[in-house]
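Colleagues,

Please find the record for the two-part complex below.
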Amino acid sequence: MKRDMSAQRTISFTLNGMRVTANVEPHINLIELLQVQFGLSGAREACGQGLCGCCTVLVNERAVSGCLYLASFVDGAEVATIEGFDGPNQLSAVQEAFIETGAFQCGYCTSGFIIMATQLLDENPDPSDNQIKHYLTGNLCRCAAYPEIIAAVKLAAQKRKDRGAS
Amino acid sequence: MAEIEMPGAIGTGSQIGRSVSRVEGRDKVTGRAEYVHTMRLPGMLVAKLFRSTVAHGRIKSIDTSAAKDVSGVLHVVTAEDVKRVIPDPYYGPAFHDQPILADQKVRFVGEPVAAVIASDPHIAEEAVQLITAEYEELPAVFDEVEALTANVFVHDELRPAATFADLKHLKGIKNTNVALAYKLRRGDFETAYATAAHKFDHEFRTQKVLHLPFEPHATIADYRDTGVTLYTASQGPSFVRTEIARLLGCPENRVRVKVPYLGSGYGSKLYIKLEALAVALSMIARKPVKVALTMEEMFYQITRHPCTFRIKTGVDNDGRIVARKCEVYWNGGAYADIGPRVTQKAGLTASGPYDIENVSIDSLAVYTNVTPSGALRGFGVPQLVWAYESQTDMIARALKLDPVAFRRRNIMRDGGEHTTGQVLKDAAVEKVMDRVLDRMNWSRPLDKGSGVVRRGRGFAIAIKAVTTPTTSVAIVNVSADGSVALYCSTIDMGQGSSTVMAQIVGEVLDIPAESVRITPCDTDVTPYDMGTLGSRSTFHMGHAVRLAAEDARDKLKRLARDVGEPEGSNIPVSELFKKRYGMQAGNIIGSGVYKPDYVSPDAETGLSPNITPFWMTSGAGAEVEVDTETGHVTVTRLINVIDCGTAINPKIVETQISGAALMHLGFTMFEKMHFDGGQVTNASLADYKIPGIRDLPGTMENLFVENYQHNGPFGAKGVGEVATFCVSPAIANAIDDAVGVRLTELPLNPEAVYRALRAKSGRPLDEA
């Protein structure tokens, strides 16, 4: 059996603000592309079925499950991963809030929760508990840090207001 | 680098009792934390596994020819190939019963039979699909009770490891599925039960559930002729090192085990899992080889023990429990893993936190033809508490006794004897119960409703001994600039141990916990630890770290004297080194070892005056709403209370209580592995549901009572498992309170509740 290498195609896209190109085979998903060709492992495969949210990545500012998203689809797109959320000595309000409230244990699912919490606060700067739960239903945490995650989102909402005001 | 306070001679005060933020927090929120599952080494190959499709059978043939022909496949490996590099390829912590790849026989559906090695995982996966095997199918046994008397034997003979002295006598025993039988005899159960005024005899069962850490099992082995390096998702790197050295017949210093961040474990990554296979494959390929499971494959790696528990209790006319018999059968699956230890360590607390004069316990580890069972956050104790605390309420109900008063009448108290004979100390069972009742407003009646939805409440209490005697070693290194690093092999898999250990170092050396560097686990650098398991780390490693820091502190004092500093001088540590070595040079190394005292249980009676260095106690209270038309149960309130000794980091303690209780809420309400002829039929996250954010109880409180542990480091003890114990019986007791039905098997899903309601109303449903 031989693999058809001619199926490879070259794609170019923006990754955390930088223009990049990659050669991808049609079956490669976005997680594999990010991990193997760009050394970014903050989005991680866990369930492999798009159910847990550990592999969350932003494509054109919308969250997708990287384990189900074929790499070749990001041709021409803007891709953002957790590795682009912090600057030198500067965490985002959501990242700070996750640390301060202890909203993670093992950390494997944390990237996905932070990306989704950020997207939630972009859409709704002052969500209720119920809105937070509803928005984060697609992310699972086996360590069950859910109460702390809800507290983190609320703290982050406050931090964003304070940062905006300052 | 962010500003980190450097320690001087003058500290900032106490580090114990501070809710220090996780020391590894920044790596985790920025996606920079690296786990083995996403790790790659230069030149690394990957392996994918071909697994058994039958539950029990002799392997007649394995055809790997088509797989070998796939372009890009480097090796297709079976047991015969493994034996050429590791002649006796059987491993395990208690029994050497598990082959690296199935050897002549397969013993459960999903057992690894062959491995394909390629540089591309997709090619390896494709090639695995082309392997075929022929089996001579043998009768299989799946149920732990049937396996006791069945004519089907999972293993031809027992192969105990030399690790545990009390298993030696089992070597070579044939025609049994019982790997280990632990018994305890206290007083005279038979006579006391025969003459008891009230007799209760019940059977409880728990289902097969699994850990599902979100980082699936993964190991990379890099074998060279000079030694082997493993990068592995493990909770027990020291054991991995010892076991790989044994398999290779080489000294331990030829085996290096590194554990980066661990995407949790809950007991699933203990002892040895994929490590032996990865080493064998790297020996064959002569390159680094990675074996990483998918989430689906975890259903064939390790699970919790299903359990059947028959419990007989005799009660006198004063509401005093006078006799209790516990027969506990643990479904260990096809390989023993740590099952025999679960059987014994859990078994000794099977009669519960009650002072009972006549007790008989038989706790049996049983082989069956399903995925092996191991330790899962509680070492068997949650399965026991499910039974005995359900029965406690059933007895109180039958005798029309108040469930609080009945428990209070029988509860164990400090100064009295535990069932094993050890005098109880620092076991706050009653204090924990009182706190639960207080938070539940127990003295005030609950509005139970009158329509379709009925309300009820229940609670439960429990006790556990820690896994012991076990050893921990730690090293504290003070560099010439005064900065401090800790070397220890406790794995922070999310429970917060790194932060807690940094606080202990900080407390002794009077420096902020945040300034202490925690060296990642690497057995070439970090010293021995028995394993991160059974809520043992804060106590055992906590002591070792304390001793190492005290040793470093004493050596710093000596250094100060040696360079002529007066007693009590506040000269910075870096100046001491400069005075001694003329420049920024040198180290101070402090070391500490801790192993508690222990007396093995008597072989005949199972009794011991010193079975555990500390007791864990917990309680839970639940309020539920039961929809009588659908059987759906909503947990509206869940109160969890534990006794943690001193809370070294109150925030982390609270998070451990919450996480443990919520994980157990899944095991209680809906999680269950379904089987058909030994085949798991819901082996994926799509079909096996775990708690999500919507499953949070309406109100949840996670509390601890501080109850100084006199022999603990700064009065502390372990907390990782303890909040799992009482969730199931508290909810079952609440359901009974609401609608008057008693469930004796988990999970408490709508179908089970609805069937019980229909049966109660005299209109039972047909079996599905």
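Chain B is about 25% helix and 25% strand.

Comments are welcome before we finalize the supplementary table.
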